[in-house]
Design goal:
This protein is mostly helical. 77% of the residues lie in helices and 0% in strands. The protein contains 13 helices and no strands. Helix 3 packs antiparallel against helix 7 and helix 6 packs parallel to helix 11. It is globular and about 55 Å long.
Length: 288
């Protein structure tokens, strides 16, 4: 069950990243984040009301608040690092955030078996290689590395925090709603500050009409991200966090394959090798 839900998480996050990446080609990244999360919050609010999730309110929701505060900071750091580039260095480094929930699981006393430990190492190596690491070329700016590591830590922290935010299904709906509302507050503030400093909230060409036309895609990105957080929480609660975290972190492979299948982008040799290693690591983790 852990492997199934964790792999569903990687699929959903990978597709959400792919969709978000396409949207940010025309629309400012902060606008994509805020609008997609607003749509997700509305849907989750309706679910919470329908399921009576408010009755599950308690101290654990502070984990959801923390996850909601860290998430936008991590995403913004990652986007800025990608802008500084090179992407062939930034993308693989961003996947190192898996170390945070894995370390949390080990701290809580988890003891993976030999096959699972091997699977962790193989899968993480596969994820890094699937990002297409750039081993030669222009030097990397120190700021890009720092921003990427901040983003990686943030992504890993969100995984660790959301896994602790609830213990029941209805409580999970409420936790995800609180996380989204916090995302909107933090991201909306960042967007407001950006506009005040001369940044743009709407695309240069097409303006508001582009955002309105992209609402279905924005809804998909927001809801896929919510669903991924939910499936990861379930995976982490029903099995070893070390296994759930690594399997859920295979989303760069999904993004790369989506780009290959839908956009016709060719996988580099190192990416194809990474995808193969990630698959091998998945098998080891699932059977270990």
């Amino acid at each position: 069950m852990t492997a199934l839900f964790a792999l569903a998480t990687s699929l959903l996050w990978g597709l959400a990243d792919f969709g978000g990446g396409l949207l940010t080609r025309r629309t400012p990244a902060l606008t994509v984040v805020v609008v997609s999360q607003c749509i997700a919050a509305v849907v989750l609010g309706c679910v919470v009301v329908a399921t009576g999730g408010w009755s599950e309110a308690g101290g654990r929701l502070w984990f959801a608040v923390a996850a909601g505060a860290v998430g936008p900071v991590a995403m913004l750091s990652f986007y800025k690092a990608l802008a500084l580039g090179p992407m062939g260095v930034v993308s693989p480094l961003g996947s190192l955030g898996v170390a945070v929930p894995v370390a949390a699981g080990l701290t809580m006393g988890e003891h993976p078996g030999p096959l699972q430990l091997a699977g962790v190492g193989v899968a993480v190596a596969g994820v890094v290689l699937a990002g297409g690491p750039q081993l030669r070329g222009a030097p990397v700016q120190r700021r890009a590395v720092v921003l990427t590591l901040v983003a990686a830590f943030g992504f890993g922290a969100v995984m660790a925090l959301i896994a602790e935010a609830s213990t029941t299904v209805t409580g999970l709906f409420l936790a995800l709603f609180v996380q989204r509302v916090t995302n909107i507050a933090v991201g909306g503030t960042a967007l407001y500050v950006s506009v005040r400093r001369g940044g743009r909230a709407l695309p240069e060409e097409g303006g508001r009409a582009v955002v309105v036309g992209a609402l279905p895609a924005l809804a998909f990105v927001g809801l896929a991200d919510v669903a991924a957080n939910g499936t990861y929480s379930v995976a982490a609660q029903h099995g070893p966090v070390t296994v759930a975290a690594v399997l859920a972190s295979l989303y760069p492979v999904v993004t790369a394959l989506a780009a290959r299948g839908l956009l016709g982008e060719r996988l580099r040799g190192v990416q194809a090798a990474g995808a193969g290693l990630a698959l091998l690591g998945t098998v080891l983790l699932a059977t270990g």
